[in-house]
Amino acid sequence: MHRLKNHKKILRLAFPIILANASAPILGLVDTTAIGQTGVAADLGAVALATLVFSFVYWGFGFLRMGTTGFISQAHGANDREEVLAVLYRVVLLGLGIGVLLILLQFFIGNFAVWVMSASEEVKGLVKDYFYIRIWGAPATLITYALLGALIGLGWTKQLLWVQLVLNGLNILLNLLFVVGLDMGIKGIALGTLIAEWVTLFFAWYLLTKNLNLHHPWQRLKELWNRIIDRAKIIAIFKVNADIMIRTFALLSGFAWFANQGAIFGDTTLAANHVLLQFVSMSAFFLDGFAHVSEMLSGKAIGAKDKQGFIKQIKDSTQIAGVTAILLGSGIMLFAPLVISFITKDVQVQAIAEQHAIYAGIYIIVSFVAFQLDGVFIGATRSKEMRNTSIISLLVLIGTGTVLTQYYGNIGLWISFIIYVIARGVSLGVYMPKLVRELF
């Protein structure tokens, strides 16, 4: 009975995160549709490239979300309200400082981004139009990363959902107004996103301060100042940042290597693999939700020095994530022909995608271990292990992929991709006994 109650709690926490994750692709679809109705091919290409620029600009600061979750959840588990507030102020000030720095460096970043692009001068000009408007939202975006991390760390996932819905919902409405209504083109997309980012920041701050009963934030900032600027705590954040950057780069490199190897087998195989990767990405919405819950519950148990609770939450959340992964993977295997034919009308692409759908399904089924253990190590703020395992797994992917593709072609590539995600889970699992010994 108690375990069933805990399972319900995990599902209740994860569900809003899953919905929040699922809202993001809708925004991209609406942006593409809006600009596609009013613009030309150059506008569509510019939106894709400009969005990619900001993905690269912001990805290195993911620690403001992941690191914050770990530090906040541990302080929350220890019932240390002062440390919760100190961490919150610390990461908000860091987000503000980095965001202002990006604005100051905007001309260098913008010119460099355009310089490395292999695009027409027309597209490059449109990318600049987008970049030099949206860059003014950098402080809002980075501070919001920190606030989202705090919401997850405190277990306030319903509030997280509201923040994401405000961000994406307002963005959609403004982009439709500026692009379709006022015919502002790509500048309208950038302006709508900019306004949505700043509104979302103030909304997220309002929710946090309200739920924390933080009535005089400026006064509390002054009172906690010496604790906020604690040198050891700031260094710890940047250590987590460096490791998470390397880990994220290794993960991106793994997917990039997979895509590049698929291209070797021709455009049709490349397209088929891309279709199947959409299933993998969709499954991540669900599995990431449980991983976020694992981050919060792990950190909370660590802060409370509750070894039994730590182990219990890992078992319970992993059971639910495992069942979810099996359902998702099996669904892909069973209904792949129907869904693939909906995504693409190219008969050759359909045939290759259907042939390899079973491997995408297997990948999804076995991937939940890596997601769950990522959550545990983020909650424990043990980023060094995540860094090491991501590098090891990337080497495993390249090594097995290079051999298997020579003998089995694209099937060998997918088998190596499955081995890769298993290696991520296994290598993190190897660190678990040491983690438990050191934390408790």
Question: Can you offer a commentary on this structure?
Answer:
- The model has no long low-confidence stretch (mean pLDDT 86).
- This protein is 90% helix and 0% strand.
- The protein has 2 domains: 15-229, no CATH class; 242-439, no CATH class.
- By secondary structure, the chain is mostly helical.
- The protein has helices at residues 2-38, 41-59, 63-77, 81-104, 106-115, 121-134, 138-154, 157-181, 186-211, 217-223, 225-228, 231-264, 267-303, 307-343, 347-379, 383-439.
- The radius of gyration is 22 Å and the shape is globular.
Query: By helix and strand content, what is the structural category?
Result: mainly alpha
User: How many structural domains can be distinguished in the coordinates?
Assistant: 2
Number of DSSP strand runs: 0
**Which stretches of 5+ consecutive residues score pLDDT under 50?**
none
Helix content: over 70%
Tell me the strand percentage band: under 5%
What is the mean predicted local confidence, pLDDT?
86
Largest sheet: none
Terminal CA distance? 27 Å
How many whole angstroms does the radius of gyration measure? 22 Å
Please report the number of helical segments: 16
Secondary-structure element string: HHHHHHHHHHHHHHHH
Shape: globular
